[in-house]
Write a structure and sequence with these properties.
Layout (H helix, E strand, L loop, with lengths): L3 E5 L19 H17 L3 E5 L15 E4 L2 E4 L9 H11 L6 E2 L11 E4 L2 E6 L5 H13 L3 E6 L13 E3 L4 E5 L12 E5 L10 E3 L2 E5 L3 H9 L4 E4 L2 H4 L10 E2 L1
Parallel strand pairs: 1-2, 4-5, 7-8, 10-11, 13-14
Antiparallel strand pairs: 1-15, 3-4, 6-7, 9-10, 12-13
Length: 256
């Protein structure tokens, strides 16, 4: 059960961040409205929110998930693979230290974005991507093993449809993984129950189990219906403005 979440308000320069898609320029008023609803949804799920002020030095810094990997046994600070995002870790370090003592860190030349890391009931899938390199994955695997966790690597560098591993898969509890069709055949998922997401709904594969609810993006009726049919109690949120900047539901908070 999650009890807490850390979020950061989007800055007025949010639209100046990095993106690989061409879906238009985010509208800041809508960005703030969607972010506020997201935070309220976390509270509805029983979480206490720590809200950080916008940091205009880093337009992408509202995507706090990329700065750390948090487990019940400790925190591991990352080293984002985009040069423009490196300072985000230092900016959130003090906040994380309020909840976790002795945080471990990814060191150069390793790079690692938290969005490439998917926890699945004590096992971690580590995404090797354009933002997370082999050394970052190696260091994280060592840190996780030291905490008693297992891990395996999924190389997504040949995929053009997603930026991070968790853009394509989500573990939602009960040994179940939501996975975009392009990745569903991976042998590493053979022991899990799969909810396969069609190509036209692939963005919604980034959903988030938060206690008794599964947060899922609006506009994807097939996945929403299947989640409901399987008893996962979806909580539907508008993510249109964050989608324009490669952002998903998991990106906007660190949950623990």
């Amino acid at each position: 059960m999650f009890k807490n979440a850390i979020v950061r308000l989007p800055g007025a320069n949010f639209a100046e961040g990095l993106t690989t898609v061409s879906l238009g320029v985010p509208r800041y008023d809508s960005v703030m409205r969607q972010h506020s609803r997201y935070c309220k949804a976390l509270e509805e799920c029983g979480l206490t929110i720590t809200t950080l002020e916008a940091d205009l030095r880093y337009p992408d810094s509202t995507f706090v998930e990329d700065t750390a990997v948090l487990t019940p046994r400790g925190a591991i600070l990352t080293r984002p693979g985009a040069l423009s995002r490196e300072g985000e870790v230092a900016a959130i370090r003090e906040t994380i230290s309020r909840f976790f003592s002795g945080a471990l860190e990814i060191e150069p030349p390793g790079t690692l974005d938290g969005g490439d890391i998917c926890e699945a009931e004590g096992h971690f899938f580590l995404g090797l991507s354009d933002r997370t390199n082999e050394e970052g994955v190696r260091q994280l695997a060592v840190h996780l093993a030291g905490q008693g966790y297992t891990s395996s690597v999924i190389d997504i560098r040949g995929m053009t449809s997603i930026l991070h591993l968790k853009s394509g898969i989500s573990h939602i509890g009960e040994n179940t993984i939501v996975v975009m069709e392009e990745m569903a055949g991976n042998e590493l998922f053979r022991n899990y129950k799969l909810i396969r997401v069609s190509v036209d709904e692939s963005y919604a594969a980034n959903c988030v189990r938060v206690n008794q609810r599964v947060l899922v993006a609006t506009g994807y009726p097939n996945l929403i219906a299947e989640l409901a049919d399987r008893g996962f109690n979806p909580l539907v949120l508008d993510m249109s403005e964050f989608q324009k900047m490669d952002g998903g539901l998991s990106c906007l908070s660190l949950r623990f």
